[in-house]
Amino acid sequence: xxxxxxxxxxxxxxxxxxxxxxxxxxxxxxxxxxxxxxxxxxxxxxxxxxxxxxxxxxxxxxxxxxxxxxxxxxxxxxxxxxxxxxxxxxxxxxxxxxxxxxxxxxxxxxxxxxxxxxxxxxxxxxxxxxxxxxxxxxxxxxxxxxxxxxxxxxxxxxxxxxxxxxxxxxxxxxxxxxxxxxxxxxxxxxxxxxxxxxxxxxxxxxxxxxxxxxxxxxxxxxxxxxxxxxxxxxxxxxxxxxxxxxxxxxxxxxxxxxxxxxxxxxxxxx
Length: 270
Ligand SMILES: [Zn+2]
Hints:
Blueprint: E1 11-15, H1 26-33, E2 38-42, H2 49-58, E3 62-66, H3 80-91, E4 97-106, H4 114-130, E5 135-140, H5 143-153, E6 160-163, H6 169-177, E7 181-184, H7 194-203, E8 208-210, H8 232-243, H9 248-259
Helix pairs in contact: 4-5, 6-7
This protein binds zinc ion.
Zinc ion binds at residues 14, 16, 42, 102, 213.
């Protein structure tokens, strides 16, 4: 994975390591993922929050983001915010929950009614603000509405990530101006994705973080296969080519700053 003898600094700000695609060999995947500096394991529904946190508690370099994905917003009951709040309170001392996510709007697949998506997104933005946590946003074919809701409800003070950013320069600039980082993963390696490469170059390395979205969205080298955190290495390689320098330390610092984490001298993160 590493070029030459250089040990790369790798960060995956968006993984789903609790998903069943990893059931047969999770220990091996986690062992490989332990070579990364930082992994954020992200939940999508009420039913996978506990499994998401479990992995964060298992791995020293891994933290959890908990929240309801737009696809799953139709399935939440009236008490879902209380349920999430209780999880945050229980984990407070261990500080393993470091963001609310993934939350947002998805009009590409529209698996939940639009009004429900908007309501659950807005409510979770407020939850993030109340808990002083950043957010991890999932936005697909809905940049305009997501932007409007952020402006109306209020942007969480700790900001967050527009995960798997997939729009044009205009929207990239607008979200960066709000203080968000763009999450860049496997799609940056796809030969046809000149648009994303040009957008990334325009917004600059100070405004991006690296991610996988594993088991989904593998880099070009593993297309059609299962993705996993160490493959973020290919994303870094592509970014290094785009920026003509080694960006790995910068995107690591971006993630540390965003999630309020500090390095504790060779012994991981806090
Ligand atoms: Zn995801």
